[in-house]
Design a protein that fits this description.
Blueprint: E1 3-7, H1 15-24, H2 26-31, E2 34-35, H3 50-53, H4 57-69, E3 74-78, H5 90-94
Parallel strand pairs: 1-3, 2-3
Length: about 100
């Protein structure tokens, strides 16, 4: 069974620093069964902002496939933009597929 962790930090709380650390540690995390799909984020900011913006339908599909193919473990997705989405809609915004 996989576990999804949504990191939803608000602006100016160190979220970007956490995202950079997760992205730089992508391989080491994977060795521990934790998936941070940094390649779906922007090179200048390794957060998964397209999740909250509702853009990048192909990225949604590819991300879902990556998660489905991954072995059991934990998947971390991070974007501070989800902090602006009403709580009852966060999961729909994060994983619309």
């Amino acid at each position: 069974m996989k576990r999804l962790v949504l990191h939803i930090g608000t602006h100016k709380t160190g979220t970007t620093s956490i995202q950079y650390t997760l992205a730089r540690s992508e391989r080491a995390l994977a060795d521990q069964g934790v998936i941070y799909p940094a390649h779906y984020a922007n090179a200048n900011n390794p957060g998964h902002h397209f999740l909250a913006l509702g853009t990048g339908r192909e990225r949604y599909k590819a991300l879902t496939e990556t998660i489905d193919k991954a072995p059991q473990g934990t998947v971390i997705l991070s974007t501070e933009l989800l902090s602006m989405v009403p709580a009852e809609r966060v999961m729909d915004a994060a994983l619309p597929c």
